Every structure is written in structure tokens, then in C-alpha cells.
Fold these 2 entries.
Entry 1:
Amino acid sequence: MIIRQLTRRTLRSPLECGSQLAALKALTGAARPNSDMAEFREVFSKAKHIAIITGAGVSAESGLPTFRAASGHWRRWKTQDLATAQEFSRNPSRVWEFYHYWRELALKATPSEAHRAIAECEARLSKQGRSMVVITQNTDELHRRAGSKHVLEVHGNLFKTRCLSCGDVDDNHHSPICAALQGKGDPDPKCSDADIPVRDLPRCDEGGCDGLLRPDVIWFGETLDSHVLTKVEKELDACDLCLLVGTASVVFPAALFAPQVASRGVPVAEFNIRPRASTSRYKYHFQGPCASTLPIALARHQSEVI
Ligand SMILES: NC(=O)c1ccc[n+]([C@@H]2O[C@H](COP(=O)([O-])OP(=O)(O)OC[C@H]3O[C@@H](n4cnc5c(N)ncnc54)[C@H](O)[C@@H]3O)[C@@H](O)[C@H]2O)c1
Ligand SMILES: [Zn+2]
């Protein structure tokens, strides 16, 4: 299976993009996408196992900027440079400020119509003996808060911490996560670092451990959780319809999930505000904000009796 054992990374150069697109083309063939919602709805009505792959775009209408909308920066730093183990060991205060900013934003956000349409559809289909899984690159928990039950978070979760000393992983929804981060994390490029001493950053309270905590997310250069990946593989192998929602598909290995499904001949429907270079590889493409398109796509079909 192609997605195993791959580390999280972003495509950086046009050259690399070109070679990856060639790989996607080889995987999926050159189908022409259509945007016939009525046709999609017929396919949807017959699907028994639906996989929905989501990215930052699904949370955009909840007020959480996508990395690209925020021009990929927090203050003066590229987000992909901040979200690394190297940067955390060099400057844990700066990295915690960055994650504190995201945690506070996500805590205040409410699920969008897109999150709600997905959750409502899952609940409805489960009564009909049909299944839906959300495979998300997002770390904001908005799918769960909307009511989705079957969610695989491939890049971890902003509201979990991992202790660097004892390895304990814990849920953590404190706001702020520690007193020293109160009022910190302003993304303005003119804002200075808080330079919080390491002893005042979030610490482990497990049996007096007091080790430094990190966010339990997958940083660039780190390997995805193999248990989560195994579940993702199973779902991608079993699905008979796949929706790809609000993702630029430039973060690997998640960018390979939809092409892998399409290569089995399973219809993939992309929902994005703009066409992307790989759009032509998928059967359907619905352009527009997913909070408008998804509720139509996933609404009760006339053939659904329960
Ligand atoms: N909310 C979050 O948890 C969050 C937010 C930003 C980034 N991230 C992380 O950053 C990485 C970036 O990857 P990504 O591809 O998910 O995001 P991205 O920022 O690279 O791309 C977002 C995609 O969503 C599309 N989009 C924006 N608004 C949309 C809307 N209203 N409806 C439909 N599509 C819309 C854009 O055209 C783009 O293709 C991921 O690994 C993710 O973990 C997460
Ligand atoms: Zn600990």
C-alpha cells in the first residue's frame, strides 16, 4: 500500500510538484471531471461506504484560516517551519505561542454548515446500514464537535498533549493551556516573541513527572501514527465513494489518499473553491464554498426511506 511509512511533508518546488502530478496521473488516469450534481446524487444514493477526506478548507467558514489564506505564515515565520520538532527544541516558547493561537481560535470557532452536513449524513446513513468515515488533516476537532462519530485525525489533535519525558498523551482543552501563555500568540508580524522560560510552558501533571508537554500533532518530517494509517488504509480500500473536501493536497502522505481510491475505479468527488492541478484526475468537481455545496450533495436522497 502506497501510503504506509511516509512522513508528513509539503511539496516545496514546482519540479517536485510536477513529478508528483505525474505520479498522480499514473495512479488515476486522465479522467475529465464533471460537476453534474444530479448525477453525483445518484452515485451517492447507492454508496454503502463513503470516505470523506477533509482539509483546512472545511474549517475556513468556521473562521479558521487555511495556511494558504494566511499566506502560510504566523508572524514572520512559515508555518511549515514552525511545525517541526527541530523548531520546538530550538524555541519551544515560540512554537507553543503558535499552537496557543490555533487552540484559542479553534476553541472559539463553531462547526460550519459543511461540518454539520457531514455529521448529519453519517447519523442518517448509519440507520440504513451504510457507513461514513471522515479522514481529516485538520487538528481543530470541529468534525467531532459537529457530531461526526467516525473520525480519523491523520495529523493529530490540537487538544491533546504529549509529555516529552514520560510519553503520556492527554486530552487538554484548558484555555489558556498555561498561565504564561495568557494573551500571547498574536500572529501580527510586528509582534515580538514572548520568550517564555521553558519551566513556565505547559508541563506534565502525571504522577509528579513535570516534563515539558508538546502538542500531540504530527509535525513536518514526522511519521504518521501507524495505527491511524492502518485504519485509513482499511477505509480507503473499502469505500465505494470518496469526497475530497477543502484540501490543496500538497501535504504528503494525505495527498495520496484520494488518488489511491481513484486508481481502484471508485468515484472521487472534489469540493473546493477553486480547481487544482490534480482536479482533472477525479470524476466530479464541485466548485464553491463547501458550506454551500456539501449540504446539497449530502442531503437526504429520495430513495432514502429511513
Ligand atoms: N483547521 C485546521 O485544523 C487547519 C487549518 C490550517 C492548516 N491545517 C493543516 O495544514 C495543512 C494544510 O493542508 P490543507 O490542504 O488541509 O490546507 P491548505 O490550507 O493547504 O488548503 C486549503 C484548501 O481549501 C480550499 N478552500 C478554502 N476555503 C474553502 C471553502 N470554503 N470551501 C472549499 N474549499 C476551500 C483551498 O482552495 C485549498 O485548496 C494540513 O496538514 C492541516 O493539518 C489545519
Ligand atoms: Zn510526563
Entry 2:
Amino acid sequence: MSKEYRMDLMATTMMGQAKNIVQAEIDAVCELIDFLRFNVQYALSLQTQQPLSPSAFETINSQNLRGMEGFWAAISPFNFTAIGGNLCQSPAIMGNVTVWKPSDTAMLSNYLVYKIYREAGLPPGVINFVPADGPVFGNTVTASKHLAGINFTGSVRTFQHLWKQVANNIEKYRTYPRLIGECGGKNFHFVHKSGDLESVVNGTIRSAFEYGGQKCSACSRMYIPQSMWPEVKEKMLKIHKEIQVGSPLEVETFVSAVIDDKSFARNKSYLDHAKSSPNLTILAGGKCDDSKGYFVEPTIIETTDPEDKIMKEEIFGPILTVYPYPDDQYKEVADILEETSPFALTGAIFALDEEVKEELIDKFRDCAGNFYINDKSTGSVVGQQPFGGNRLSGMNLKECCCPLSYDAPVKGGHYSF
Ligand SMILES: NC(=O)c1ccc[n+]([C@@H]2O[C@H](COP(=O)([O-])OP(=O)(O)OC[C@H]3O[C@@H](n4cnc5c(N)ncnc54)[C@H](O)[C@@H]3O)[C@@H](O)[C@H]2O)c1
Ligand SMILES: N[C@@H](CCC=O)C(=O)O
């Protein structure tokens, strides 16, 4: 990809989706290129999987991969330019036609991705870029008898709605549509008293607040031993004071506005809940302002109730809630975590005690599609930490089914501002 296009992809992602320059590069350039490279290599490797031919002198058996009849609907979220560029092109690489509906709030960068594909030689009619209202698009594609599949990333609510629409129309289709959905999360950091304090502090600040907590993998709840909390809190509050909130176009900005008015209202409702609930104390942030841009302060909340709704529901903004627990009760608290939320996208444990580590890995095996050990819950790299959620977060469809995709060194999560 030319330097000009890489710059344009970053610029459109910064302006349209309010990513700072670092986050825009990770997403719109690096991850998109990684997806393109990975998908081609993966498609080629699928071709090599052939059935047995036990008596090759008499019979040669073969299996050919071909595109499906009809079209795939690719429906993408606002938060990653690379995800839009991936959802539409991965079915196309396998020989399918896709109709790509970008998010209403990521149109500019996504259109540029489409133009780059066309300029790179993609024939007309293979990937069809169709900006549209979500429900109008959903109603239209699920009513078509030619629907071959849906490649969706976004919220649980939208995916379940689409699934129901397909079920209601099931008798109309020429072929059974394949449904692929990767959805939301309520990602956790679970700290044991043997965890490395600096990794906890830096990893949690990054995971909770990079891109304003609008990565599907962002940490939004943390469980920490009471003995560690005072020092971790002090260090986190110190870093919090240095976080720059502002325009994504300013190079020192760490957190910018959330994506739109709906997101602002959702974030505000959780801040209002925190202000009125006796179980919750706002330690830092807590304000929001939509007079110019939809700004929500990076917020750290402490809770005395690990089952408060703020520990269960996806907020998708820069709001982190921390539950300090009695040090000797980590097993009981792990049980609570396991049951608290219907999501299971990403999670991380911070523990250096080998026995405890093994115990927690086993305990949380179904709580996260991507599981991190002594590292933050965000930042998966294509081909290195295959991504996909469990339970309501997704279908765990990754190129590798290993539930423990990443065992990082203890210092792996370090970061300096
Ligand atoms: N698991 C993952 O890999 C992953 C990655 C990124 C984002 N997400 C999740 O995505 C969500 C944030 O993205 P969002 O706000 O764009 O999600 P969303 O569900 O609001 O929208 C996703 C897409 O669906 C479209 N849509 C909305 N209603 C529709 C309908 N009735 N029929 C058809 N399409 C419809 C939207 O226009 C958009 O293009 C969060 O829940 C986040 O966790 C998950
Ligand atoms: N690759 C991203 C996940 C994408 C979801 O929004 C991460 O792990 O940070």
C-alpha cells in the first residue's frame, strides 16, 4: 500500500472515528494489512487440506473450495476500520460476492478502504459498498432468497435481531445462510496478590482508556486484593491526572470524544447511576459534556458490590469499575466473576504464583475467548492472538481454537506516558 494511502487511511480514521494517531495507525494501517496478508495465507492453506486417496492408483479424491451461491452481507462496526475492511474481503477471497454495509459512523475511512481495493484490481461487483440505514439494510438482505451468509461484528442486540430475522425467513432461502457474529464484551482484569503491581497499573490504564474504552476488548471491570488496592489506586490516579482529553488531531491527546450521541447518553446513564448508587464511589473523572463533541471523562469507580449492573453490562466508553476484595477470598470472587456477566470476550489474570495461575486459567476457561496472563486484555495481533469471543460475545470462530492464546511475559504490559 502506498505511503499516501496509509496516511489517508489514518487521517480518515482520526477525523471520522476520533482515534488518536497511535490508535489510527494500529487499526487502519497495521491491522488492515495484517488481515489482508493473513487471509491470503490462510485461504491457501485451506486448499492443501484434501481427503484421503487410499488407493491412489485407482481413485484420486479431491475437494475444491468454491464461492457460495448468492451473496454475503458484511455488516461492520464503527470502532475498527480494519474490521470493516476484513469482513467484506475475507468472504471475497474465498470466491464469494459481498454486499458491505459500513457503520453510519465510520463511512469516510471505510469508503477509502473500498476505493483502495478497487484501485488494487478488485473487479466491480465483487465487494459492493452500500452505506445504508442499519434496519433498512438488515430487513432487505434477510428478506432476499439469495442471502448466503452474514459476516457481522457489532453489538449482541443487533446480531440477535439479525439471527431472528433469518430464522423467520428460513423457508425463503435457496441455501441455508451461514451466520457469523462477533459481538460485545464485559472484559475483566482479575488480580491475585502475587500479581506484578506495575503491570496491573499500566495494563489497566491502557486497556480501559485507549480509544476511550471503545475497543471491544477494553477492560471495564477489575477485581483486586484489598491489600494491593491502595498502592495501585494511588498510581492509577497519578497517571489519570496526566491523561490528555481532546481532539484526536492533537498529537498529545490520549482520549477523545465517544463516537456519537447514543454512546454519550449510554455513558452518561452509567455515570448518573454511579453518582446515585451507595455501592459506587467515583474516584476520578465522572463528568461528561456534549456541548462540543461527545466527551466523557476517563472515569475510575470503586464498588463494594461485585454484582452491581456496572460490573455486568457493556458500556463501551472510558469507564472502569474496580472491586477490591479480601485477599484470602480470591476463589469466591473468581466464582462471582465467572457468573456475573453473559459476555465472554476478553479477560486477563495477573498472578505470578504458578499454582494460582493454573487454577485461575482453569476457572476462567469459558469466561473469555481471548485470555491474557500478566498482560492487558486488549491489543491482539492478527495471526498471533486469534480473536473471537465466547458465550454471547461471539462464536469463538478463530483460526485456532486454543482458549489461551497468549501467555505474555510479566513485563509485557508495561507502558509509559
Ligand atoms: N467481538 C469483536 O470482535 C468486536 C469488534 C468490534 C466491535 N465489537 C462490538 O461492536 C459494538 C460496537 O459497535 P457498533 O456500535 O457499531 O455496533 P452496532 O450493533 O450498533 O452496529 C454494528 C453494525 O450493525 C448495523 N446495524 C444496526 N442495526 C441493524 C439492523 N437492524 N440490521 C442490520 N444492521 C444493523 C450498524 O449500522 C453497524 O453497521 C460493541 O458491542 C463492541 O463490543 C465487537
Ligand atoms: N484487535 C483488538 C480487538 C478489536 C475489537 O474491537 C484488540 O484486541 O484490541
